[in-house]
Design a protein that fits this description.
alpha/beta, elongated
Amino acid sequence: MNEAGQMRGWWQRLSAGLRRTSSSLGSAISDLVSKRKLDAGTIEALEEVLIRADLGPATAGRIAAAVSQGRYDAAITADEVKGILAAEVERVLDRVAKPLVVEAAKPFVILVAGVNGSGKTTTIGKLAARYRREGRTVMLAAGDTFRAAAIEQLKIWGARTGAKVVAREPGADAAGLAFDALGAAKDAGTDVLLIDTAGRLQNKAALMGELEKVVRVLKKIEPNAPHAVLLVLDAGVGQNALSQVDEFSKTAGVTGLVMTKLDGTARGGILVAIAERFALPVHFIGIGENIDDLAPFAARDFARAIAGFDV
């Protein structure tokens, strides 16, 4: 199958994966507009439906306003509402749908952050596989030193992808490991260095303090490192994802987002609210555990999938 065919197949799977989100939203819209003509009460109820779907108040308000435009006391079909929904969601997301460009820096250092359970370490493995397929050399740094399982998981991904792994014993200093890994990657002429980080320490201040320290020591070797800071978000956490973006951005200078587990939640709309509020680039989305279940983000396909249309 050629690349275009592979991407179409992937987005068809995304459409299926987002069915919990689109079905929940579609049912609520159908129930609302099929029973009465548009009036102020219907529009208000529609806006509430969209907010409950985690789309965010700003986007929900614009969709409701667009639906009502010139249609008071007129009937409207659920598909017409969903068409307006898709168009508005695409408009919001189109501004943030940007690829992660691996530039000339050698190594190009990608720091990957996120809370435990977000799919952070798995995402690193998938990115390693992607870059290896592109013919790049890759090194992985097991910087989540507080979880032995994360260290072992990264070693497995290294073996699967042919990427060298820098790891220490559980409990080792994460900043020191990152420092050593960057030095080793420079010496080896490695193209991409992916650094895992802890997702949960004894409290939030400790977690953020460690991230700050990792960034600080990287800059001692390479002032421009890390060249990208990716925050991995689990779509299923809904509104809590907004506070995660806020906190990690302040601490680690997040440059882009990866959203995972979109196939297991009815809360996929949260990506729209995040885009509206933070305008951070969305580089990749994930819909499963397999090595190829991560793809560059495309606004139109996501918008159509969340509205329940074929992509």
